Amino acid sequence: MNEMFYVYLVCSVLLITIGLYTLLVSRNLIRMLIGFEIMTKGATLALISAGAANGRLALSQAMTLTVIVVEVVFIAVAVALVMLAQRKNKSLDVRKLTKLKG
Amino acid sequence: MQLNYVFLILLIIPAIVAAFTADLLRAAIALLFCSLGLTMTMFNLEAPLAGVFELSVCAGLITVLFVNAISMMPPETSEEKSLRFKSHHSRFILLPILLVVIVGAAWLNRNYFINALTINKIVDQLSTGQVLWEQRGLDLIGQIVMMLAGVFGVVVLFRRGNPHE
Amino acid sequence: MLLAYLFVPLLSAALMPLLRKLWIKATTTLALLAVLYQLLISIWIAYRKLVVGQPLHLGQWLFGGKLALSIDGLTLMVLLTIGLVALVALGFAANYQLSQNRRPGFNALVLLAVTGMNGLVMATDLFSLYVFLEIVAVTSFVLITYQQDDAGIEGAFKYMMLSAVATVFLLLGMAIVFALTGSIGYADISAALNNSNLFLKLSLGFFIFAFALKAGLMPFHAWLPDAYTAAPAPVSILLGGIVTKVAGVYSLMRLMLSVFGFSKSLASILLIFGSISIVFGAFMALGQRDFKRMLAFSSISQIGYIVIGFAVGNTLGLVGAAFHFFNHGVFKALLFANAGAVEEATGTRNFDELGGLAEKMPVTGITSVIGFLSAAGIPPLAGFWSKLLIIMGVWTAGYRVCAGIAVFAGLVTLAYLLLMQREVFFGKLRAGLEEIKEVSWRTYWPAILLAVVTIVSGIFFAVVLNKLIIPVKLLLGE
């Protein structure tokens, strides 16, 4: 059972890496959100496989449900913000946003 | 045992596709397939409740949100498009190298890592519904507050104010 | 009774849409009453502990016997700070330029943020901490972008993306700990912990990364200056006074105290991050010309002080860090309130356009002097005592170099705050500023309240130390 959990953990790290890379490198706001969504899938996979390896599937599923609900609200607010930015700047380019100094 | 790996492939390949493709609509559809892979993995691990939630919420709702947002983008000419594709692909060269490095490191050291994972497996007596209501009551309150915060947030973001009174 | 901390702000927020239809001016009053209630309840609990001697470990059981909320000394101090800063932020916003029909939404969001922060500090396991952390994050984004201007959208988006990364790493660390120990409650994890496990160390690393990103420690501070500067003035008060500290610094403290315990290597990592934050935050604050941006870098610096204070793990350090938590909330909120008043009166935040305001805005000038003295650590104001305790704690734990760095950075802090005072309030009155007047009392009463709190907590420090802060020490003694 440990081997399988290890495989799932590595896959979760892979997903998080893909998502993080996409988030950091993208120029389009929506692609950054897609990157975040991929990262969240990696974290959810880690959570569920931890529960499966542990035998405590009930607690793990309860946590996963809550994570999904919380993250969907987060993404909804993020998409709303992106739409607001799109309405103001007429483009979804992240470079048009950065007017403040670092 | 084999089925696990099939579902994992179904999970990771669409994620890579979603990162690589320069067309946003394809990325959203790839994200949908990624959710499907995760749902199948959850069903395989005997977590049906979480699988159903993932399917309906992530594969359904979030994809709809993204497609909605993507459709609001301004149309672009074909030369803008090829320029964007080229610059996008050039930025993603590093990703496969990174992934291969990670998989290689994980594979080569697997015995060391697996031995470090000391997991005690128990047999759980409760059902998910019981756990959710009896033990995680605070999380339920948190979910309600979060949804309220989301509703107020979106309303406030889009409501236009009257000129100064 | 602990549920009141969650339900009073929550129900007040839920009532806002109803009041918006019925009687719109009552929304601000209701919001102020809700946070005032929280402040008074916290003072009352503290009073019961100090004077009457009742035990401070209050707990709340929910739905079937599992401990869900609990308050100890540190939590009570943070709840008090939350109540005070939220009261000031809402009070400042009451007279701020917000359009009337959006104002209930603003009040509702601030109240929901307060609910989230209350839940965060009272939670007894990591997962509830995560849920309430997300609540605080989402409400903060929307509040930053409240005026729907370009700067706000950029600041909020940067904050949002970095906060999302922190969330995912927090979840990953939580999954690993859950797999290894089978539970996510503080007590259960610390009981089942075997610190030499590689994966536990890895998960601890993920936790520190996530919370340092949320707290704005260097080198993870990239979002902080933009978010603080772009937010409207009452939101800056809330952010700088309490949100960043509760989300990041309190979580780190709780993790160290209740879950992982103190160890040498952990202390070293946190000391390095903290020292870098203190020094670079102070130097970057020195070079700013925008009032709020300077205060943002100053916040990074002070958060570094709190982190090195509790990282060393002895009583002095922990007590100093807890007191500095409260003090920083008070004086940073005070300085941001002054910055907001200056911006409202003159229309600019740029040092190059300001000067000599003290004669035109006497109340703002005096309160900013008090805030600056406390921030720079000048006796007998409160900031001096908390910094002294932190430096003494770090010195006695053997980290002499770090203590020396903290003292040196204190001088740089004094330098940039003095610069701010000279540029904005003293010196010659710049051309074009002759007609400005002091802001109305509705805008400066929060500043006066905070100045009074700073003075009182500084003078009565000994009393405050023994009766309010020593309970924090009991956490270490048990």
Topology, please?
The complex is a heterotrimer of chains A (102), B (165) and C (478).
Chain A: H1 2-25, H2 29-54, H3 57-89, H4 94-97
Chain B: H1 2-20, H2 24-44, H3 48-70, H4 78-91, H5 94-108, H6 110-116, H7 128-135, H8 137-158
Helix pairs in contact in B: 1-2, 2-3, 7-8
Chain C: H1 3-22, H2 26-52, E1 58-62, E2 66-71, H3 73-94, H4 103-122, H5 126-144, H6 150-181, H7 186-191, H8 198-215, H9 224-230, H10 233-260, H11 264-286, H12 291-311, H13 315-346, H14 362-376, H15 382-396, H16 400-424, H17 441-459, H18 461-477
Helix pairs in contact in C: 1-2, 1-4, 2-3, 2-4, 3-4, 3-10, 3-13, 3-17, 4-5, 4-10, 5-6, 5-10, 6-8, 6-9, 8-10, 9-10, 9-12, 10-12, 10-13, 11-12, 11-16, 12-13, 12-15, 12-16, 13-14, 13-15, 13-17, 13-18, 14-16, 14-17, 15-16, 15-17
What do you see in this structure?
The termini of chain A are far apart. By secondary structure, chain A is an all-alpha fold. Chain A has a single domain (2-93), classed as Helix Hairpins (Orthogonal Bundle), CATH 1.10.287.3510. In chain A, 85% of the residues lie in helices and 0% in strands. By secondary structure, chain B is an all-alpha fold. Among the domains of chain B are: 1-76, Four Helix Bundle (Hemerythrin (Met), subunit A) (Up-down Bundle), CATH 1.20.120.1200; 127-158. Chain B has helices at residues 2-20, 24-44, 48-70, 78-91, 94-108, 110-116, 128-135, 137-158. The mean pLDDT of chain B is 83. By secondary structure, chain C is mainly alpha-helical. Chain C has a domain at 263-478. Chain C has a two-stranded antiparallel ribbon with strand order 1-2. In chain C, helix 5 packs antiparallel against helix 6. The radius of gyration of chain C is 21 Å and the shape is globular. The chains are: A mainly alpha (102), B mainly alpha (165), C mainly alpha (478). Chains in contact: A-B, A-C, B-C. At the A-B interface, helix 1, helix 2 and helix 3 of A face helix 1, helix 2, helix 3, helix 4 and helix 5 of B.
Briefly characterize the structure.
The complex is a heterotrimer of chains A (102), B (165) and C (478). By secondary structure, chain B is mainly alpha-helical.
